[in-house]
């Protein structure tokens, strides 16, 4: 059975989710209290509805509990975001993802039962800071508290070493889960694989261990 999605709040963030789901040919209901915003998405969403999501009766009448996943993308109006999330969980929506504006907001959303809390501005800021901090880092993805995946580009310090020579697991407690080379990706690369300049190593591990390895690669 196809999944059914709802996005509440059609700002830049919620709007981009609706557009992307539409591109992926996935049905999505888009809800906003602002008529102009809803009109913008009339031809993009499967259904675009003007509604105040803090009104439980309205959400019930839209049959919201029958949807698999609702994204609450209301940011600035923290009260509306919290109340909406609370009503959705009360009505029995299986999966609610809510966008937080700040850490307190995130805490409250988590406490009232949001299944996933996202913090796009903070996460993008962290990601960019990691990229800026070290020229070897191509990308950074926080997985959970204190664990991340980083993409590290191989420079002269790594060139010509085999994964066995590098032995990241023994030396740093890290695992190389894949190597990207010339647009191709090799998952679980062979330990005998030699690293070439420009390879991108996709490495997973604890932030402290990643930090130790990254600092070894300064000016890599
Ligand atoms: P973004 O950072 O995603 O661009 P934004 O600043 O454009 O966000 P927000 O204030 O975060 O907008 O709100 C996103 C949308 O949520 C707005 O279009 C707003 O009309 C809508 N919204 C706010 N409160 C409600 C509500 N109670 N019911 C439905 N939609 C709402």
TrEMBL record:
Gene3D superfamilies hit by this protein: NAD(P)-binding Rossmann-like Domain, Regulator of K+ conductance, C-terminal domain
Give residue ranges for domain RCK C-terminal.
Answer: 135-219
Q: Which GO terms describe its molecular function?
A: monoatomic cation transmembrane transporter activity
Instruction: Tell me the InterPro entries matching this sequence.
Output: NAD(P)-bd_dom_sf, RCK_C, RCK_C_sf, RCK_N, Trk_Ktr_HKT_K-transport
A Pfam family per the record: TrkA_C
Q: Which residues form the RCK N-terminal domain?
A: 2-118
Entry's Gene Ontology BP terms = potassium ion transport
Q: What is this protein called?
A: TrkA family potassium uptake protein
The record lists the organism as Macrococcus brunensis
The opening ranks of the lineage are: Bacteria, Bacillati, Bacillota, Bacilli, Bacillales
